[in-house]
Amino acid sequence: MECVRQTMNGAELSDMFKLPPTLLNRTVQVIILPAEDTTQEDVKTKKRQLGFLKDKVPELPDSFFDPLSEEDLQAWGL
């Protein structure tokens, strides 16, 4: 893991960070570490399958797409 380590005056950092007053006029050491290691592979959206539904969802019959009957439409308030 790469990091950056820099020693500088606390007053130089006060414009970027809210520092305690005790650090403003002191030499401080700044260490920057990556918070999360991401790669282009991680950034790309991967298509996922729902494993818990595998082999459990039956295929829909063609009649599924037929229009609803008048009675069903009224039951749904349409």
Question: What would you note in describing this structure?
Answer:
The protein is built from three helices and two strands; from the N terminus they run E-H-E-H-H. It is an alpha+beta fold and 78 residues long. It is elongated, with a radius of gyration of 30 Å.
Short description:
The protein is an alpha+beta fold and 78 residues long. The protein is built from three helices and two strands; from the N terminus they run βαβαα.
User: What would you call the shape?
Assistant: elongated
> So what's the oligomer here?
single chain
- The whole-angstrom Rg is 30 Å
Structural class: alpha+beta
Number of strand elements = 2
* Fraction in beta strands: 15-25%
- Major pleated sheet: 2 strands, antiparallel
The average pLDDT is 80
Sheet with the most strands: spatial strand order? 1-2
Helix content: 10-25%
Regions with little confidence, pLDDT below 50 for 5+ residues: none
Measured between the Cα atoms of the first and last residue, the distance is 61 Å
Give helix and strand order, one letter per element, not per position.
EHEHH
Enumerate how many helices there are, as a single number: 3
